[in-house]
């Protein structure tokens, strides 16, 4: 009729309650740790990706070797810019580059033709390229420190020919987002010359 609870039964119930609370705390801690580890991994991969992209924007650019103008009469009608990889740069596909030509007749956004200059002349707002030195036959891709490409700007296709004393800025933007600026001034005397260094 009457039920008696002994001291041992009370201790057992308290122990089970403590065990349940302990297990719950361990589960919550495990879930929280899992979330933190996943978040840390995600942030780490994002920071590495951002770092690589930032590095490419700085290093994956071209470097000017020489700039020469072809003289026609008393004007320059074609500009050849020889470029190579900048130190520390990765592969640079010149067909994916965009160029801004800033000259006396205006600013022009130029894109590359898909063929070598020796096979076709660029038309409209385009520039072309000519492989000068290429050890592996990659033609339009600068992938070695010894590679050299001539960027050919047929000035009269999109602007007026350059006169003596004209100033030009060429900005070459690679696919990675790195930009190289090349500035030159046409010499004051072009008479009796076929080509001039700019």
From TrEMBL:
It comes from the Archaea. Keywords: Archaeal flagellum, Cell projection, Cilium, Flagellum, Membrane, Transmembrane, Transmembrane helix. The chain crosses the membrane at residues 12-37. GO terms for cellular component: archaeal-type flagellum. Its main location: other. Pfam families: Flagellin_arch-type. One of its GO terms (biological process) is archaeal or bacterial-type flagellum-dependent cell motility. GO terms for molecular function: structural molecule activity. It is found in: Archaeal flagellum. Belongs to the archaeal flagellin family. Flagellin is the subunit protein which polymerizes to form the filaments of archaeal flagella. PANTHER family: FLAGELLIN B1. This is Flagellin. It comes from Halobaculum saliterrae.
């Amino acid at each position: 009729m009457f039920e008696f609870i002994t001291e041992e039964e009370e201790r057992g119930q308290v122990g089970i309650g403590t065990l349940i609370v302990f297990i719950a705390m361990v589960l919550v801690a495990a879930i929280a740790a899992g979330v933190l580890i996943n978040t840390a991994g995600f942030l780490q991969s994002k920071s590495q990706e951002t770092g690589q992209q930032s590095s490419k924007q700085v290093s994956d650019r071209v470097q000017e070797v020489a700039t020469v103008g072809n003289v026609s009469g008393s004007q320059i009608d074609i500009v050849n810019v020889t470029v190579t990889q900048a130190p520390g740069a990765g592969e640079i596909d010149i067909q994916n580059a965009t160029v801004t030509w800033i000259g006396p007749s205006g600013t022009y956004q130029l894109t590359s033709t898909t063929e070598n200059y020796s096979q076709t002349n660029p038309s409209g707002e385009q520039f072309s390229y000519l492989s000068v030195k290429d050890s592996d036959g990659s033609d339009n891709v600068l992938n070695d420190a010894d590679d050299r490409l001539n960027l050919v700007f047929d000035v009269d296709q999109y602007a007026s020919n350059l006169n003596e004393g004209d100033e030009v800025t060429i900005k070459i933007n690679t696919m990675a987002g790195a930009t190289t600026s090349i500035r030159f001034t046409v010499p004051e005397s072009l008479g009796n010359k076929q080509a001039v260094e700019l």
